[in-house]
Design goal:
The chain is built from ten helices and eight strands. The protein is an alpha/beta fold and 275 residues long. Strand 5, helix 7 and strand 6 form a beta-alpha-beta unit. The relative contact order is 0.15.
């Protein structure tokens, strides 16, 4: 078994850019970008969009320490571009979710090989927690896979997402906090926890005290950049891992100056809200 080589130092006040839109969600990303597309060219077009974002001057290691990428993006050579900017890469390794929120991971061994081949720092897996009934099942799966990933030298991001529109979101988050504590007590690796921005600030704050938690980050989950940053700023020791909030108001028709200004504005606000 390969010994983990991931770093032990916790990055603070920087955030992780989430850029791992897969084939299923790419159409929505391009629609928001005001980009016409076909099924044949959509992956080319979304890669062009990501390159435009990454090559923007303010997309740098001053405020960003990591980026989550889809396999297609990794295999098109994004990791060296990010590495030259001092930014670590995380590979999305799941294949989506079942109807009950359970993770699909049919290609996990292959994805681990891809992560190693392209010198990624870590991985990310996303599950959807819709009810208390499936919470333990989802966490059991996530932590088992995370330990497997950590043991081959990669830092796993565990993402049990509670939808922002959940009718009992605050109580779900309190239950998730308690169950995460229980699973962390028995987890024999390190991980990053990526969690929905909570209704009650600092719901997840105590998770930072666990030695096996590298960092707690918040996902924007559909909130606007302004609301996501306002919610994030109320949480101590939580930085961002935003996707839609990062790319808000970016469109294909912007001039380079306009594009750079908007993404720079988003980046500075997200970084300022992170801790």
């Amino acid at each position: 078994m390969k010994t983990s080589s991931v770093a032990q130092e916790k990055p603070m006040s920087k955030f992780i850019a989430a850029m791992d839109h897969s084939g299923g969600s790419t159409g929505g990303v391009l629609k928001n970008y005001d980009q016409e597309y076909t099924e044949e060219n959509k992956m080319d077009l979304v890669h062009e969009m990501r390159l435009r974002m990454v090559n923007s001057p303010d997309f740098n290691s001053t405020n960003i320490w990591g980026a989550i990428l889809y396999q297609d993006t990794v295999e098109r050579g994004m990791v060296p571009i990010l590495k030259a900017k001092g930014i670590q890469s995380f590979l999305k390794v799941d294949s989506g979710c079942e109807e009950n929120g359970y993770l699909k991971y049919f290609k996990l061994d292959k994805m681990i090989d891809v992560a190693h081949e392209h010198e990624c720092y870590g991985t990310k897996m996303r599950s959807i927690v819709k009810s208390l009934d499936v919470m333990d099942m989802i966490l059991e799966q996530q932590f088992a896979l995370a330990e497997r990933i950590y043991n081959v030298g990669l830092m796993p991001i565990i993402e049990p997402e509670i939808p922002i529109e959940h009718p009992d979101k605050a109580n779900m988050e309190e239950a998730l906090f308690l169950r995460l504590k229980a699973f962390l007590d028995n987890y024999k690796g390190k991980c990053i926890l990526k969690l929905t921005l909570p209704e009650i600030p600092n719901t997840y704050w105590l998770l930072n005290q666990y030695q096996n938690v590298h960092k707690v980050v918040g996902l924007s989950g559909g909130y606007s950049t302004q609301e996501a940053c306002e919610r994030l700023s109320k949480n101590n020791n939580m930085s961002a891992s935003f996707s839609r909030a990062l790319s808000e108001r970016l469109t294909k028709g912007l001039t380079n100056e306009e594009f750079d200004y908007i993404i720079g504005f988003n980046i500075s606000n997200i970084a300022a809200a992170s801790s």
